[in-house]
Design a protein that fits this description.
Layout (H helix, E strand, L loop, with lengths): L1 E5 L3 E8 L10 E9 L1 H11 L4 E7 L1 H12 L4 E3 L2 E2 L5 E8 L10 E4 L7 H14 L5 E5 L10 H11 L4 E4 L2 H9 L4 E2 L3 H8 L4 H10 L5 E4 L5 E5 L2 E6 L11 H14 L4 H17 L8 H8 L3 E4 L5
Parallel strand pairs: 1-4, 1-9, 2-7, 4-5, 4-6, 9-10, 10-11
Antiparallel strand pairs: 2-3, 7-8, 12-13, 13-14, 14-15
Helix pairs in contact: 1-8, 4-5, 6-7, 8-9, 9-10
Length: 313
């Protein structure tokens, strides 16, 4: 079983309107709700690939109940979220019905999340430690809600390593910097997060710098240009067959799911990267943000290019 940790879970709400105009009233044409937060997105993709996944983090209030109700209805996903007194955050996206592939990203409103008390943080750590003996890999994903220590990911990395469980970290800012110092097995930043971590805007150099800071392996997302990997086994660059247009929401989470799936299936690094890029690209092309079409994914798997050596990373 794979464990994904989403400390700042969300209820993702999408409003569709004919046309978004500032300072005006709008008639909403449709509303959709689904569990959100990076780790929950990763779990949904892993479950669609046939893996058993446990999800943990925090859930509270009406939004938290809605998240848990939907998770319970998702085959292959085990709900191990920890109850809190505050309410799970909501993220609101406003999408225009006339949106096209060339339209900028949807207007997004992200709440900060519930205030986590020391007792709630302690309860989560107990649940987390209790889950580790039954999982093959853990992914720590996303932002921290208020009240959670900035070094939380570093502590969770050390706990997983002490239990002999490989750990992937997908975060940004100071939580990422401290987490990397705890020596996770893999970090998966995007280009901006990698530059902020290392101070280098040259991706090849930055991936090496991130490894020197403590990460055993680094896989950097370069958006439509694919993935760049620096690992103990070698350096690779994986690119999709062509630059695609679509909605990139959730594409990075699909890449994380591909990397985790490849690790569990004991694939060599080039094949893990192929799976991650194919999933990420299929997510961009999907009509619903954060989903992917299996047929498109299978087709893309045979079209991803992987190059190795010093020129790749």
């Amino acid at each position: 079983m794979i464990l994904t940790v989403t400390l700042n879970t969300a209820l993702d709400i999408t409003y569709r309107v004919r046309e978004l105009r500032p300072y005006a009233s709008h008639r909403v044409t449709s509303v959709t709700e689904r569990p959100g937060g990076k780790g929950l997105n990763v779990a949904r993709v892993l479950a669609a690939l046939g893996h058993e996944v446990a999800v943990t983090g925090f859930a509270g209030g009406p939004a938290g109940r809605a998240v848990q109700d939907q998770l319970t209805a998702t085959p292959g996903v085990l709900d191990a979220l920890v109850p809190v007194s505050g309410s799970t955050r909501r993220t609101v996206a406003v999408v225009e019905d006339t949106a096209t592939d060339l339209t900028p990203h949807p207007t997004q409103l992200n709440e900060p999340g519930p205030q986590i008390t020391p007792a709630e943080w302690s309860a989560f750590q107990d649940v987390y430690e209790g889950l580790l003996p039954s999982v093959s890999v853990v992914a720590l994903c996303g932002s921290l809600p208020p009240g959670v220590p900035v070094g939380a990911y570093a502590d969770l990395v050390r706990t997983a390593r002490a239990a002999g469980v490989p750990v992937l970290l997908d975060a940004d800012g100071e939580p990422l910097r401290r987490g990397v110092a705890a020596r996770p097995d893999l970090v998966k930043p995007n280009a901006g997060e990698l530059a902020e971590l290392t101070g280098s805007h040259e991706p090849s150099q930055a991936t090496r710098d991130a490894r020197r800071r403590g990460a055993r392996a680094v896989v950097a997302s370069l958006g439509p240009d694919g993935l760049l990997a620096a690992t103990p086994e070698g350096h690779w660059r994986a690119t999709p067959p062509a630059r695609v247009r679509g909605n990139p929401t959730g594409a990075g989470d699909s890449a994380v799911a591909g990397l985790l799936s490849g690790l569990v299936d004991q694939l060599p690094w080039p094949e893990r990267l192929i799976r991650a890029v194919a999933l990420s690209t299929a997510t961009v092309l999907a009509p619903v943000a954060g989903e992917f079409d299996h047929a498109v994914y299978e087709e893309l798997t045979g079209q991803v290019t992987v190059t190795s050596g010093a020129t790749a990373a």
